[in-house]
Amino acid sequence: MSHPESRTSRLLDGIPGSATVGLSDRIAALRSAGRRVVDLASGDPDADTPAPVVDAAVASLRAGRTHYGPSRGTAELRRAVAQALPVGVTRDPDSEVLVTGSAKFALSLALQALLNPGDEVLVLTPAWVSYLPLVRLHGGVPVPVHLDSRDGFRVTAEALTGACTPRTRVLLVNSPTNPTGRVLDAAEVDAVVRVAEEHDLVIVSDEIYRHLVFRGEHRSPAVAAPHRTVVVDGVSKAYAMTGWRLGWLSGPADVVSTALVAHQHMLSCVPLFVQDAAVVALTAGDSYTREMVETYRLRRDLLIDILDGADGLRFTPPEGALYGYLDVGGTGLEAGPFAARLLESTGVAVLPGGPFGAPQDDHVRVSLAVPTADLTTGLQALRTFVTTLPAPTPSGARR
């Protein structure tokens, strides 16, 4: 008799569950057991969804907007998406925009539309924990392009070109970046576009954090290369709407129409009342995001003030997104043991860097999406914890 494992998909062999979801479950279990935990691991904004957005959803529900809607998304929301794209990017809302269930699902649809089995996808690492698994789930081969923390995780044409092969099909980029907080500058975006042009790659640009910039400005490769760029975005981060699960992809009509086929068979459509609420969010300009961005900017400054100069820690100040990415290698501990001991001894939860795909697990991610008082408590406890660790061995061996 065959074992049950033989009935499961080979595509899922060796793919771990989401590290962020797993740690959230662990934190919930500890809290249920009565343990106080300061959660510096979550990427869920601590702000409430703006009241007018909630009111719009309630009004839509009461108006009976609870049935199937257009699979592409309502015309009103697609127009709002097209009008809210980065400056310099123009898309036809009728053929080049697809509204779907979350930015994560939009990314999944983009990969489904672009990849054939064995196609390679360049992924700049460290990278969000779902990029590498999603590529594999759609039959692709993720090719990590490791960025050096000592160079501020800078993207270069040389690194990208060196990773290209005849099977390379897609270049996946994310700016502002989870987990490092980097915002790609003009030279880096130019390098991405130039390599994509030279090797005939499609750029999939995850811009879910594009409104959350503290230093510099967000630049989309779709401005210079609209014919080969698919942009993934959504309302989760900028509008504190993570639980609403609404996102979209915009790009060349052939890619969007192919993604639409998969969308129709897998999801059909996004709830109409959620789309109606998203229209209110997108057409409000920056009136809802401005205060959140300033709050995160102040928390980013707090992170720098508390952790700068701490023995054993090194980090590049985040320029955007919701995270700080700390190099803890100087403590003599790898990230996994560091995070486990920190949680056990102080009740502060951070996310180890291993699931972000870096070759060496020596970083932890801390989130700015927590109340300022909790962030202060957690960061101070982290700094104090570091001072309690024995000095690293002279050889640099890790404990």
From TrEMBL:
The keyword Manganese does not apply. One of its GO terms (molecular function) is transaminase activity. It is an enzyme of class 2 (transferase). Its cofactor is pyridoxal 5'-phosphate. Keywords: Aminotransferase, Pyridoxal phosphate, Transferase. CDD domains: AAT_like. Residues 36-382 form the Aminotransferase class I/classII large domain. It holds the Pfam family Aminotran_1_2. Its EC number is 2.6.1.-. It comes from the Bacteria. GO terms for biological process: amino acid metabolic process. Belongs to the class-I pyridoxal-phosphate-dependent aminotransferase family. This is Aminotransferase. It comes from Nakamurella endophytica.
